[in-house]
Amino acid sequence: MLEISNIISHFRESVKSKHMKIRFDKVCILLLYIISLGSARSQEILKTITSSTQKTALVEGITKAPSQIYTIEEDKKQSAYTLYDTSMKKIVEVTAKHSFSKEEIKHKSFDGSNIIYEITKGDDKGYWSLGGGYLGTKETLDGDIKTTSSYYNGVLKKNSVDVTPLFFMNEDYYVAFGRKKGDENYKKTWEEFEIFIYRKSLKTGEGSYHKIKAPEDNAFRNKSHKLAYAGKDFFILVINKNRDGGKHIYVAAYYDYEGNLLKSFDMTIKKAPGSQSFGYFTLSSGSFHQILRMDQIWQRQATNYNAYQQPTQDARAAWYYDYNEDAFYLYASAVNKKADDGVLISKYTNEGEKLWEHYEIVEDSKFTIGKSINRFMAVVATPQFTGFRVYSIKGKHYNHFYLFDKETGAILKKEYVKEKEYKKANYFNSYSGMMGIYSDSFASYMKTFEKSKQKNHFDYGYFTDRGFMLGISSKKKSEILFLNFEY
Fold it and tell me: Does some domain include residue 334?
């Protein structure tokens, strides 16, 4: 198999020649032909993107739903934002009013068609949409929605009644979800509390309030609720309404952008038969919270150094939303005192019907509270399979991959990869590992890349409707090569 880095280096030098006035991305057509002579037919070079000058940095990212690539050419005067579909065809191309970096993007629509970035200096200080719409300052962006809740060290204050705020956007609106500011809004009984979305137009900057109807009484009271999806016409919130050691009940609530509840349904995951409880993993940003030592608090010497991480109920179970099917996956681990522990995953439709559930024993495993912050699970739904990985970064080594049939839940492949073998395989995230388990040709390609990784490095690897997309950038960040591996 031909070395991609060597081919790219050869053509890069050719492009720089004064006698060859051809753009580098056009050379990819010839590259595709050459590489196909020595590699699997499933591998395809989609595009090479280069910055307009050597002085501008080129960075890229991935949108959530659908999975697409966007690039930002960071210029000192004006930044260029481009969105590509999975065939690397341009679907959005905008030169912004200002210069901004990837780090200055504060919000992004799920499909990547619009963003909000922040200007921190000068006359235009504040938040702006991609099309040039001014949205306000940090103090006015969210209207009267309260941006904080009554938490201390990650724990909701005892006897307090509050709603965790959410902030997101689609291609047309910026949305702030929560309760309004003002003491008068906190003197009512819980039944009288009102929850709103503040919807702000990205074109005009005009905002309006819309009262939210809860899917059931007290649905948002001191509960863990998160955004699953925000599309053009509706958004989805998932509420963890019942959390204990052996059962989690989630509510999926669909809303339009006027606050109307379109539909809602329950989804339940229970501990596996014969198990004592769920285990502990880092499953989300809320899986652990920081606890300060009481002796340090009393001495008024509390610092982060004197803190430790305590798992929450969100360390026991979690959910994953599949945009392509409008379906949900619930997953957790199970602790067995007299046997090895295991993992559990189930699939639900967009009407709350459970399609399947699978429990798998993980050999020589114990998922107790000790070192649980170093254990992780990763779930992804592709057009061909549902991927599931159980792994650790410290302590006892776990690195188990499971590929499920999306329709039945039957295991298509499963594999334990030892730490040395995983590093040798050159996988750089859970998705690339799953693709390596699924596709022998992709696994072979990853091994050949090891020699060239000093000059180039992987930026992203993710699943699309066409296959597995791989982004490889040059060391100077002036050039990015995109490869696609078909399923």
Answer: yes
